[in-house]
Amino acid sequence: MLRDEVLALLKAQGGVPLSGEAMSxxxxxxxxAIWKAMEGLRQEGxxxxxxxxxxxxxEESPDRxxxxxxxxxxxxxxxxxxxxxxxxxTNNEVKRRAVDTVPEGLVVVAGEQTGGRGRRGRSxxxxxxxxxxxxxxxxxxxxxxxxxxxxxSAVAVCDAVEGVCxxxxxxxxxxxxxxxxxxxCGILTELELEGETAALRYVVLGxxxxxxxxEADFGPEVAPVAIxxxxxxxxxxxxxxxxxxxxxxLDRLNRDFPRQWECWLERYRADCITVxxxxxxxxxxxxxxxxxxxxxxQFALVVRWADGSEETLSSGEVSVRGLxxxx
Length: 327
Ligand code: BTN
What we know:
The protein is an alpha+beta fold.
């Protein structure tokens, strides 16, 4: 779409003016078409200055989740981008579109979910004010390595938040992203296997980050355990900026997975605040208290029980003392 191409050119200029003539030459369209695209962008809320002989410059962008705002050249993750104001669940939307001919990198972004899904069949409250994003990945690796993607993506979220906000959140094993002891972001990884061969068809990586929600938006049940960037920092970044940073981080993840295992494992261990703390492990009706003593090479949690024995957990419900309401 010409609008998106014009916007991409303006952004690449970083505020330096570009003439209508240069744009029409680069995009192979008339100057009248450039002018029309410019007017359209202004109507959407973009502030674009124009000066005779110097050309057009992008002064300010509205906080919109649109392909023009989020696209960047060279990224595989997000090369195919669907931006929606509202959807039942971005994970569901990726699955609906994930026929075999769709290459990896499809991303669905939404500003609100009406049926957001969490781990263990729970729902995930997804009011406006959050950023909801799912990516279709097709990693080339043995099935046993795929579950580590969920831990890697928590590191990727920390990278994106740090890049945009200047503070690095922590990770509660396996992949809750935490700020000030409360949950900033939830991640749901879903796999689709071939029915007959059980080979991996694709992975959907779903990420929900709290940006501008207030206590009232979270409601009385969720508010004590959730936090938004606006609550933590006094201001939230633009949704589009954080979404673009997330796409950059997921693209790096996708390029590195699984070859850069050691590097991501080291980064995960540095971010994970579960280790060294008292944990309560819930299995069915059984609840057991121990101490998390490490994250092993497969991103599993090593827990030491009161009798001194150790157990390695690769999944499960783990409450960490001091986080998310466990006192
Ligand atoms: C959890 O903490 O239980 C996981 C929450 C995952 C929420 C994200 S939001 C984007 C994507 N779409 C969904 O329906 N869920 C994930």
